[in-house]
Design a protein that fits this description.
With 130 residues, this protein is mainly alpha-helical. 67% of the residues lie in helices and 9% in strands. It contains 5 helices and 2 strands. The longest helix is centred in the first third of the chain and has 30 residues. The chain is flat, with a radius of gyration of 21 Å. It starts with a helix and ends with a helix. 12% of the residues are buried.
């Protein structure tokens, strides 16, 4: 009988683990990788044009930026606005759905600052031992 209870508990744990893994996998599909959140942050800070975004997100190539922008548009985070005229003007605008990432960005910012401080402190502690 206790084995049965334990087995049921393990099954629930396994199902919960599976649910969490699927959710994280979905999140990483939508915003994962090196660039997507950085692009969203750059646009949120007022960089609307392709070259402005590329300048802010240092290290990203034009090809990769173009691809990432298309994926972000496909996932409902932004829209590409084309103004016909001479010259043609293209701007990227965040959609309201992108605001659902605010907590994620805030948590990652806080953790990133904390992690950088930890690494710096460990590095300076190792340097002082030499």
């Amino acid at each position: 009988m206790s084995y049965e209870k334990n087995n049921i508990g393990n099954k629930a744990f396994t199902e919960e683990c599976h649910t969490v893994l699927n959710a994280v996998s979905d999140a990483l599909y939508a915003i994962g990788g090196k660039w997507k959140l950085m692009i969203i942050i750059a646009i949120a800070r007022g960089n609307k044009r392709f070259t402005e975004i590329q300048r802010q997100v240092s290290g990203i190539s034009a090809r990769v930026l173009s691809s990432e922008l298309k994926e972000l548009e496909m996932n409902g985070f932004l829209i590409k606005k084309v103004e016909n005229g001479y010259p043609v003007s293209i701007e990227y605008e965040l959609l309201p759905y992108s605001q659902t990432l605010e907590e994620v960005v805030n948590a990652m910012t806080k953790w990133g600052i904390q992690h950088r401080a930890k690494i710096k402190s460990e590095h300076s502690a190792q340097s002082s031992k030499k």
